[in-house]
Amino acid sequence: MSDFIVTFCFFSFAGNVFVVSLAVADLVVAIYPYPLVLTSIFHNGWSLGNAHCQVSGFLMGLSVIGSIFNITGIAINRYCYICHSLKYDKLYSDKNSLCYVVLIWLLTVVAIVPNLFVGSLRYDPRVYSCTFAQSASSAYTIAVVFFHFILPILIVTYCYLRIWVLVIQVRRRVKPDARPKLTPHDVRNFVTMFVVFVLFAVCWGPLNFIGLAVAVNPGMVTPLIPEWLFVSSYFMAYFNSCLNAIVYGLLNQNFRREYKRIIVSLCTARLFSTDSSNEAVERIKSKPSPLMTNNNRVKVDSV
């Protein structure tokens, strides 16, 4: 645990607080909605009542929108850190960074609340989940796709394009001393978060474009969408929550080192507990039974 804290503190607090917030958004679906989806699959239908359905759908939406808003926040943070390094410390002090994260989650909750009034959180038997019904309200679906996917994607794309331009300029020595903070470590962190963004866009793009098409003309488009396409795009989208940790482990040396230490610690603890239990069993077997001892004592006394 101390090694993890040292590694965590090695990086800037401002950058880490957004990554931790993104991790929380990914974990939200694993704690509550996913177990209910598995239960629904095993029972071939929803059997947990409407209250659990609404809570599950609400948390799924919270995770999705929280993820894209946090990815947007990370992109803006990296953009300011690399392209506007002189203003970065002032913009992203520890207090300001926490305020930004709180603002992200407030906006996420505000974005999800209308679902409760529109009635768009429903059980969909195609995916065994209580989720956002794209055909519930055309206007609301268009607003969701634009403000919660297209607009954040455009902002993130702009930020990362500006960063790529600067990285290329520095590597070609066009601006050799313009950005003293741009180190190989910064570039690796940027590449990691860029891959996270690309995977999110690829995983969530199909489902959002299907929703946009359905919202524009529900009566004509809905029958034309094959069930396998919707189901595939849905599960591909929610599989994205599992990918970020893999990306961190593949592209970030510090994460790989901590993953390795955690796995080794778990294996060592398991082997230690197994050896301890075997030793305890052997001691019990080698120790004479109290009953036999008493019986022998009785026999000796009777003699």
TrEMBL record:
Protein name per its UniProtKB record: G-protein coupled receptors family 1 profile domain-containing protein
Domain G-protein coupled receptors family 1 profile: 1-248
Similarity comment text for this entry: Belongs to the G-protein coupled receptor 1 family.
Function: High affinity receptor for melatonin. The activity of this receptor is mediated by pertussis toxin sensitive G proteins that inhibits adenylate cyclase activity.
GO CC field: plasma membrane
Residues annotated as transmembrane: 7-35, 55-76, 97-118, 138-168, 189-216, 228-251
Principal location listed in the UniProt entry: membrane
Gene3D superfamilies: Rhodopsin 7-helix transmembrane proteins
Gene Ontology MF: a single term: melatonin receptor activity
Lipid bilayer topology: Multi-pass membrane protein
Native source species: Anguilla anguilla (European freshwater eel)
Location of the protein in the cell: Cell membrane
